[in-house]
From TrEMBL, chain A:
Family: Belongs to the bacterial solute-binding protein 5 family.
Keyword annotations from UniProtKB, A to Z: Signal, Transport
Keyword S-adenosyl-L-methionine: no
Extent of the signal sequence: 1-24
Ranges for domain Solute-binding protein family: 67-431
Protein name in UniProt: Peptide ABC transporter substrate-binding protein
Pfam families tied to this protein: SBP_bac_5
Major localization listed first in the record, in broad terms: periplasm
InterPro entries the record matches: Peptide/Ni-bd, SBP_5, SBP_5_dom
Subcellular localization: Periplasm
Protein source organism: Thioclava marina
Highest taxon listed in the record's lineage: Bacteria
From TrEMBL, chain B:
Name of protein: Peptide ABC transporter permease
Family annotation (InterPro entries): BPD_transp_1_N, MetI-like, MetI-like_sf
Keyword Endoplasmic reticulum: no
Location of this chain's protein in the cell: Cell membrane
Domain of life: Bacteria
Residue spans crossing the bilayer: 12-30, 105-124, 136-159, 199-221, 257-279, 308-329
Coiled coil regions in record: none
Amino acid sequence: MKTLHKMLTAAAVAACFGTPAAWATDLTVGFTLDANTLDPANHRKRETETIIRNMYDGILTRDANMKVVPQIAESMVQVSPTVYDFKIRKGIKFHDGSDLTADDVKFTIDRITEDGGMGNGQTSPRQSLMGPVAGTEVIDGDTVRITLKEPWPILPAMLPFEEVVSKAWIEKVGNEGAATSENGTGPFKLAEWRKGDAIIMDRFDEYYGGSTEIPPVGKACVDRVIFKIIPESASRVAALLAGDVDIINELPPFSVKQVENNPDTVVMKVNGTRSFFIAMNMQGKYFADHRVREAAAHAIDKQLIIDKILGGNAAPIEGILSPDAFAASTDLHKYSYDPELSKKLLAEAGYPDGIDITMDVEGAFKDTAEATASLLSKAGFHTKVVVGEGAQLSEKWRTKGGEKTGDMYFTSWGNGSLDPFDIFTPTHKTNDRGNSAGYSNPEVDKLLDEAAVEVDTVKRAGMYHQAEVIVNKDLPYIYLWVPADLYGVSKRLKGWKPSADSRINLHDACIE
Amino acid sequence: MSLSKLLERIAQLVPVLLGVSVIAFTMMALTPGDPVQIMIGDQAITAEQEAQLRHDMGLDRPMVERFFIFLGNTTHFDFGESFYHKRPVADVIAERLPATIELSLVALVVALATAIPLGVLAAIKKNSIFDRIATVGSLLGVSLPGFWFGILLLMLFAVHLHLLPVSGRIGFDSEVPSVTGFLLIDTLVAGNMKAFGDAVAHLILPAITLGLPMTAILMRVTRTSMLEVLRQDYVTFADAKGLSRRRVLFRHALKNALIPTVSVAAIETGSLLGGNMIVETVYGWPGLGRLVVESIFLRNYPLVQAAVLFYAVTYVLLNFVADLLYTVLNPRVKL
C-alpha cells in the first residue's frame, strides 16, 4: 500500500540528488525519557544511564540475571574489607581511537567521588552512589586500587552504575563538552542527538567485545540503534504496533493483551526492583496502635489486585525487599486477607464502627490505590483516596523525623542495586529520608548500620533477615508487591531480553 | 503608530516582566517539593553529601538572596544552569523552541485556512444544514480533549492505515544541517525535498490536533462577526447598488468581519505556544511545552523561571501585534 507518508516523500525524491543512507539493520527503542546529559558523572537519572550505558562501559557490569561481572576490569580482588583491586583489561579503545588505561579508570572514580571532582568546585551528583571512597590509586601499571574509609560491602553492586571516561578527552572538552558529546568504550558511538526527539548511535567497529562472562563477546550485532523518545505510553504502544520501533519500555499492564494479540509483537517481562507499600503514619491518631496496623494489613487482598489490575504481573511481598534482592527473606509471616479479623482488631483498638482515613497517592497509581482503598473500606477503614503530585507528597511524608500529617501513603521505593542498603535503610532507619511511616526501632537501626559495613555476606544476610523479621512484626508499612517490568517487543528482535535493573543493553540484540 | 507610542509600549514591558519574574520565582520557590530530594531519588545518601548537592545547586542560600541573584542575572540574559541538563538554561530552551514555534505556526495556518472559509460559509448559509453541522463541529472541536483526539488520530492514520508516522519531527535517515532549527525551512535550504516531505508528514497529525480547538474558536468568531457585518447598512447599500454577491461578500464584508478573527488568532497563538504540552507528549514532539512540564515535576527552578519569562514576553508581544493588526484592518482605531 502506498502510504501518504511515502507519497509525500516520494513526490520530492526526484529533486533529491543524494541517495538515502542504507542501514542494514536499525534497532529502534521507544523510550520514555530523553537523556538529561551524556556525561556519566553528572546525572542521577536511571533513564539517562540506560541510554549512556550503550556508549560507555563500566568497570563492572551485570548479566541478565543481575550477577555482577567484570567488564572493563579483567578481575576484581577484595584485598581487605576496605581495599579493592581491579585489574584493567588491555586493548580497549575509546571511540576517538585512544587506548583506555588504568589512569582513565582512576580519573573516572576520582571525578565522581572527590569533593569538587568535576572541576570548578563542583562535586558529582553521583558521589553518594559510590559510598565512602577514601581514594583511588594506580598500582602495577594496570591495576586500580579503590580504598574505602570504612567497609562498604555493596561497592561491587554499585560499580555497574558508573561508566569509564577518558581523562584526556574530558580535560579537552570539559564538562560542557561531555554533556552533549561522548567518548566511551561501549558497543555504540554517538551519531546524533536530536534533543527531546532521539539519540542515534552507530556500531563501534573497534569494540573490544564487552564482558567475557556475557556471551556473545564481540562487536554489536546491529548497525545502528536509536532511542526514540515517546513519553506517552499509548503512543509508545502505537509506535510498536505500527512497526516504527522494536522495543518499548514501561508497557502499561492494560496494553499487554493488545501487544500479545498483534501478530508481530510479544510481551517480555522481568522481575522489577521497585517495591510498593503503604506507609501508615505511626505518629498519627490511629496507626500508632499496632492492632490498627495489623487490621489494615489483613484488609488487603494483594493477590486479587495483582490478578485483576496488574494482570498478574507482580510478585507479592511481606517485607520491603524484592524477592530477587540480596538477603530477601522467604519465611516472613504472611498477613492473610481476612476482613473479619480486621474488623475484630479495629474493635479491640476501640473503633467498633471503623475509622475514616485518607490515603495519599500519586496520580499514576490512582487505580491501584482506589482498589486497595475499596478493600480497606470493606474491613472498616473508610478510606478516601487523595491524589497528589509526587514531589509534594514526598515532602509531606518523608519528613526525616519532622511532624507528619495524613493517615496512609501509597508509595514505592526503587532498588536498582538489589541490595538492602539502598532500600531497607532509607525507608526503615529512624528519621531516614525515605521513612514515610515515621518508624523507629533502635534494634532495627543497629542491625541496619552493622549490616551496611559487614563484609561477611552470610553474617550480613543474617542481619538483614533479623531486621526483616522484626519489621514484619512491627508492621510500619503494608508491603504490597514488586511489579514486573513490562516491555513490548517486535518479533524481529532476537538475542535481547529485559534486565531487572531496567537497563536496555543492546550489544547482543539482533534484527532478523 | 508614532515612534513615541512604540517606545511607550516597549517601556510598558519592563514592569510586566519584573512582575512576572517575581511571580515565576516565588511560585516555584514556594511550591512544595525539594529539588534536591527529587534529584537524589530512591537512594541512600549521607547528610553531608546531601548538603553538598544542595550547595552545588545553589539552594543553600536564603530565598531572598537567590531571587536577587536570579533577577541580576536575568538582566543580562543569564538564566542560570539547568539542574538536570547541567548546561545553560538558555541553550536548553533554544534547542527546543524551534520545534514548538514550527508546530504552532503550522497549526495556526491550518486553523486559519479551515476556520475562515467555514465561518464565512456558515454565516452566508445561516441556519442551513451546513451551518448546523459546522456549529456542532466547532463545539466538538473545542470540547475534544487533545490527548484523546491525538491518540485517536494516531491509531487510525499511523497504526491502522499506515499513512503517517507515529511520532517525532523527521525520520532518522533524513540528515538535514540545522540552520534555523525550523525543519521546513532547513530542508528547503538544503534542497532536500525528500526530507521536506518527511518533515511535512510528521507535522500533519500534531498540527491538526493542536489546531483543532483554535479552528473551532476562530470559525465561530468569523461566523458571528460575518453575520453582524452582513446586517450593516453599507452591505445592504452595496447589494442595492447591484454589486455582485461575491464582490459584496469578499470585498466589503469579509475585510471588516475578519477584524475580531485576527485579534483572537493573535492571542490564541500565544496559547498555542504555551499549550503544546499535551500534543508534544502524545506525538513525542521535542518542543518546549514538554520540557517545561517535565521541569516543573522535577522542580528544575532555573528552567521553569526562564520559560515563564519567555511565555510572558511572547504573550505581550503577540498582544502588541494584535493591536497593530487591528489598526491596519480598522484605521478608525488608534493605539
